[in-house]
Design a protein that fits this description.
The protein is α/β, with parallel strands linked by helices. It has 8 helices and 4 strands. β3, α8 and β4 form a beta-alpha-beta unit. The termini are far apart. Residues 48-52, 79-85, 158, 183, 185 line the site of adenosine-5'-triphosphate.
Length: 189
């Protein structure tokens, strides 16, 4: 950990003219760098997870975190193969690099039981927005406004219908560098 802290310090003192840059920007960058170093040196939260590191490597390659493009990555497979577990681990590791991050769990079940508006409200609740959505269309407008021009990490876990993505994570909504991870048992949509 000491070595990591030293690494972070070096990264910010070697040839980086801190004094010429906006203070808030520098602080944000320092926090992001330290967070990334700490997260990448953390062990998996459960060492009994079989083959998790190689899956993480594959998904990291697909996510291309450094790129400014907007990228959607799907994790598809039958029930119980570890899609949610993998998405959670990735989320925990990389969420510090985004302005907004949200993990929407059990989308299929919640949308069937409570409706899609409930999931739109979950996003607002998660982000501590003192606002309430009453209908799906308004929800799309509010989420669009919230995500627009922001670097967002959103996980849509266990989606089973394209309409869920249209209401929770339309590709048109996100700012540069955003990533959306979708887990699903069904890749036909
Ligand atoms: N790599 C792994 N090694 C060992 N156990 C794992 C691994 N990944 C997940 N598990 C375990 O398998 C079970 C199912 O995992 P998970 O809920 O992630 O599956 P899922 O693919 O999301 O299933 P569903 O489609 O039903 O949502 C969990 O108890 C989890 O702890
Ligand atoms: Mg799951």
């Amino acid at each position: 950990m000491k070595r990591n802290a030293k690494k972070a310090k070096t990264r910010f003192t070697n040839g980086d003219p801190l004094c010429r840059r906006n203070e808030a920007e520098v602080i944000r960058e320092i926090v992001e760098t330290v967070w990334n170093i700490v997260c990448s040196s953390l062990p998996s939260y459960d060492d009994n997870l079989v083959g998790i590191e190689s899956r993480m490597v594959k998904i990291n390659a697909l996510l291309e975190i450094e790129a400014d493009s907007i990228c959607f990555v799907g994790i598809w497979g039958m029930g119980g193969i570890g899609k949610t577990t993998l998405a959670r681990l990735v989320f925990e590791r990389i969420s510090g690099q985004f302005e907004i991050s949200c993990f929407l769990a059990n989308v299929r079940e919640i949308s069937e039981r409570k409706g899609i508006v409930s999931l739109q409200n979950d996003i607002l609740l998660h982000l501590n927005k003192g606002q309430k959505i009453y209908d799906e269309h308004c929800g799309k407008t509010i989420l669009n406004r919230l995500f627009r021009s922001k670097k967002v990490l959103l996980v849509v876990d266990d989606a089973n219908h394209v309409s869920q993505l249209e209401s929770l994570a339309s590709p048109k909504w996100f700012g540069a560098g955003s990533r959306v991870i979708i887990t699903t048992r069904n890749c036909t949509y």
